[in-house]
Each structure stands twice: as C-alpha cells, then as structure tokens.
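On clarity, I found the account of how folds are encoded harder to follow than it need be. What matters is that the chain and its backbone geometry are given together, residue for residue. The format is easy to grasp once an entry is in front of the reader. For illustration, here is how one protein appears when written out as sequence plus structure tokens.
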Amino acid sequence: MKLIFRLFVVVFVVLIGGSCSEYRKALRSDDMQFKYDMAVEYFKKEKFAKALPLFDELFILYRGSDKGERIAFYLAKCEYGIKDYISAGYHFGQFHKDYPSSMYAEESQFLSALCSYKMSPKYSLDQSDTFKAIRAFQLFAIQYPESVRMDSCNLLLDELRFKIELKEYKTAKLYYKRESYKAATVALKNFNSKFPNSEYKEETWFLWLKASYLLAINSVEEKKSERIEAAKKAYSTFADRFPQSDYLKEAEIMAKELDRVGEAELKES
C-alpha cells in the first residue's frame, strides 16, 4: 500500500512537472551533472517528490562513487519525505551497510529505526513492526551510545515498549472479562513477570488473584483443592506486595471464602 502511494506521488509530480519546462528538462536531460544539480536543488527546497525521480535515475549510475554516497542518502531522505517508510527504511539501512564510515552513517541508522517506528501500528494490531523498531533503536544505542540522538532514541523506545505492554495488559484483561479464568491466570502472571514496574501492576496482581479465586471456586472437584491452594498463594502474594491497596478488603473476603471452601473440601474427603 505504501509502495503504491509512493508511485502515485512520483507519477503525479512527473505529470504536473510537464507544465514546468525546467523540471521537464531535468527529467529528459542526458546531462547527469545538470540532473544531479537540479535534484539537489529540489531536495534543499524539500520538494522531495520532484527530487525523487531524478535521484532514482542517478542512483544506479553513480553507485560506488563519492557522489553515489550522497545520492544514496538523498534518495532515502526523499522517500522519507514523501512518507514511503518501507523504501526509506530499507535504503537507510542499506546505506549504513554500504557506507559505515560516512558522515551520514549515524543519521541513516537512526532514520532507518525511525521508519520502523513510523510503521508501528496501534496497540490492538499485530506488533511485528513495533518489535522491529525496538530492535532497530536498541542496535542504534549500542552502535552510537554517545549520540546526541540518544535522548530521542530512549523516548521512542519507551513509547514502543509501552505499546507492547498495553497490548498484553488489554489481552490479559480480556481473558478475565470473558470469564476465561484459566487463560487469564496465565496471561496475568506472565504480564506481571514481564512488566514488574508497570503502572498497571497493582490491578493486574489483583486480577490474577481474582481469576485464581474464581477458577478455584468454580472448579471441578478433582482440581478444586489444588486450585484453592494456588488462589491462596495468589492472595498472599498480593497482600505482601500491596498492603495499602484499595483492593485489599475484597482480597481478604476472597481469602476467607477460600478457607471456608477448603475446609468444606477436607470434611467431605
């Protein structure tokens, strides 16, 4: 979809450029220096959609030369400028591999990661691009720990990580709301292990207790004793971690009910 958008932008500008004799001349010219100069001029004016077709043509011709290095960087910047983040991310990453000592290498590595960030969807969708962006920023931080871009890198990493955290939080709560208590206990316990400092930690530890309680109370007889003990441990864990919690009264009511049901089970056995 993004590739189609890029092609649409380029074709549209080329067609509109037909009314501009200077731009049409640059597109048709066999003078590569003139074409290059015009591309750079458009680039500096941030007319990326006009510069892109020119740099596209020059890219292969000058590959491997000093001018080719600048063209490769300008090409990726133009793609970024028209929001073709798939192509831009690829070309920034390739630039860093081809020109690791370039003055543009650090910026290219950062912008490659930023392209992945731009493609990261809202938390409710598949987060493959989010994980890709996290890995890209982590790699940047390893390669350029003293970079002036590190503050931005860390802020964006925090944002991406929170998106993953939010997705897992919502998923775990959804299991609970749907009364899939066994799945909820697993999902909530995993969430608490993965995100021990989450802003949702008090709620998710309590929901883990409540899901464990409801699973035990409504359990089949052969599993009830085992699940009651698991729920009691969940209560102890919650009470130890959050002794001032607003949920504590409800937690204590559940603990007493677990004791009552557990004693009844022992008498029956």
